[in-house]
C-alpha cells in the first residue's frame, strides 16, 4: 500500500488532498468513508482522477490527470479506498 502513497506524492495529489483532513479537496479517508461498500466506487474514482470533475465535494473542480498511467491511477484509487494507510 505504500506504493499508492508514493504515486500520489509524485503526481501532486497531496497538494489538494491530505490523508486525514480536508485541504482544497476532501481527505483520502473521507473519500474512503463515503464510498465504503460501493461496488462502483473504484471505476468511478479512476475516471474522476483521469478526467477530472466537480460538484461532488464542493465547487472547486478536481483537475484531470491525463498523464497518469491507468495502472498508477488504479493503485492510488485502491490505496485511497483502503483508507490511505501510511504503511
TrEMBL record:
Keyword terms: Electron transport, Heme, Iron, Metal-binding, Transport
Keyword DNA damage assigned: no
Annotated TM spans: none
Annotated InterPro entries: Cyt_c-like_dom, Cyt_c-like_dom_sf, Cyt_c_ID
Source organism superkingdom: Bacteria
Cytochrome c domain segment(s): 1-84
Residues annotated to bind heme c: 13, 17, 62
Any one GO MF annotation of this record: electron transfer activity
Alphabetized Pfam families for the sequence: Cytochrom_C
PTM description: Binds 1 heme c group covalently per subunit.
Keyword Iron: yes
Name of this protein: Cytochrome c
